[in-house]
Description:
Aspartate Aminotransferase, domain 1; Aspartate Aminotransferase, domain 2; 7-stranded mixed β-sheet
Amino acid sequence: MRDAANRPAYLDNHATTPVDPRVLAAMRPWWELNYANPASIEHAMGREAEEAVEEARRHIAALIGAEAREIILTSGATEANNLAIKGAARFAAPEGAARFAATQGLERRRIVTVATEHKCVLESVRDLEAEGFEPVILPVDGNGMLAPGTLREALEVPTLLVSIMAVNNEIGVVQDLAALSAVAREAGALFHTDAAQAAGRVVLDVEAMGIDLLSLSAHKLYGPKGIGALYVRRRPRVRLAPLISGGGQERGLRSGTLATPLVVGFGEAARVARLEMALDEGRIAGQRQRFLDALSAGIPGLRVNGHPERRVAGNVNITLPGGVDAQAVMAAAPGVCVSTGSACSSASIEPSYVLRALGLPEAEARATLRIGIGRFTSPADVDRAAAELARAWNLVRERAAAE
């Protein structure tokens, strides 16, 4: 492992964020001093662990304007997304049709999502086709936005669930959740959002935005990996079928012993994010502009993808001019950590499906980099990254011209 002095400039904060030192400090006692199972409420250490979990749950809920009892702890946003989508569908499946009809009034088999969603959402929706549901994948415009009219047209067929990502993990665009959820509610469909990239970056309020289900991940907001949450609306109550059977933890929706240190870390990360979000985003926006100015000077003609205004401050998704392959540029810039797209899709040799959904030709999609600037990105980091990426682009372009 590299020491701090030799560490590359890290600009991949959409893939994961570093753990905030305050989060590490909050977690440490729950590994070293009180390692009790929070379900062991028969003794003092277990009760202390349980209270620490509940305090963390309150902080997580406060970040999104929810009640603590509406927060179901999971292993991350991928599990939360699966639980929201498959759990809602399976509760409404034929064997549960009678109980479902009592709340919805009719059988709904359509599940609607968007072409630019995270893989775990797209695959969850597609998996349900084998169980008799109808997956519908909606297109976005050239800026990555879903028009409410496009959703309204899809919901002319009775629909069970709509799932739309709050902030895209590749191009950073912010969907208008309040407008889209209103369309879903008018049609009688549940509304789920994957907010892993949104929490701590944009204000979320499940009541004001009309959200029924919302997925979170701690490691996207300077917390630990391996812990996430699903918000499940209590009034009117949203019902799900659990994916995991066991001891009945988390209201029976997610059995398994909770990892107290991770939960505490998630809670502290949420607490800090709620207090410092505006300060973070202002600072990050300045760093983003500094990076773009420097990179544009070194690479004339680069293009930023996604909506120019409705986007999170730290996202820079750029297509390099001249058809220069982004993977080759990354290989020629070992002192910089960036990516070509979602970390969950990086093993694929195919160009980003998100960029293709925006209408980018394959060659341009292969020439695109994703940069994520975060809380701990320094001016020196952005200056170094811009200089090294520009140098690498020129080097790769010159090599290609010489061949």
